[in-house]
């Protein structure tokens, strides 16, 4: 029999959190969002009852995005801004969108799929 070993990089914070509650819907305002630093996710609610999750790591320099305001996810390190519905770059220097993850809502729990 052959054993398979896990070599290489450790799992991402998001991979470790799959199947777990990452936040509460009560923390994610409609038209805005919240950064959940323990799971390195930013969860947004572009429209009532519609939740999106993205990596909180800015695609420009890897800083953790710090705020969600005016329908934008903002990284204050270098000024990149991302759309709360798609994660697409609105303002650079970032060139790539934020990585998107799927979430399920269970009551007020936000569960990372």
| Poorly predicted tracts of residues | 1-5
Helix content: under 10%
What Rg is obtained from the alpha carbons, in whole angstroms?
15 Å
Biggest sheet architecture: 4 strands, antiparallel
* Strand portion: 35-45%
Shape: globular
Total helical elements? 1
- Order of strands in the sheet with most strands: 2-3-4-9
Say how many strands there are.
11
* Termini separation: 32 Å
Provide the structure class. Answer: mainly beta
Pattern of helices and strands: HEEEEEEEEEEE
The pLDDT mean sits at 89
List keywords for this structure.
disordered N terminus, 4-stranded antiparallel sheet, mainly beta, 113 residues
Concise overview:
This protein is mostly beta strands and 113 residues long. The chain is 4% helix and 39% strand.
Tell me what you see in this structure.
- It is a single chain.
- The chain is mainly beta.
- Helices cover 4% and strands 39% of the residues.
- The protein contains one helix and eleven strands.
- A four-stranded antiparallel beta sheet has the order 2-3-4-9, with no helix packed on it. A four-stranded antiparallel beta sheet has the order 5-6-7-8, with no helix packed on it.
- Strand 5 (67-69) and strand 6 form a beta hairpin.
């Amino acid at each position: 029999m052959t054993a398979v070993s896990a070599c290489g990089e450790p799992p991402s914070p998001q991979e470790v959190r799959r199947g777990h509650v990452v936040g509460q819907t009560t923390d994610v305002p409609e038209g805005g969002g919240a950064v959940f630093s323990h799971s390195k996710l930013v969860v947004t609610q572009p429209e009532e009852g519609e939740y999106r999750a993205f990596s909180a790591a800015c695609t420009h320099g890897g800083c953790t995005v710090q705020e969600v305001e005016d329908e934008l996810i903002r990284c204050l390190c270098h000024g990149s801004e991302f759309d709360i519905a798609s994660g697409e770059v609105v303002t650079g220097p970032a060139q790539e969108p934020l990585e998107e993850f799927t979430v399920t809502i269970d009551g007020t729990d936000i569960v990372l799929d």
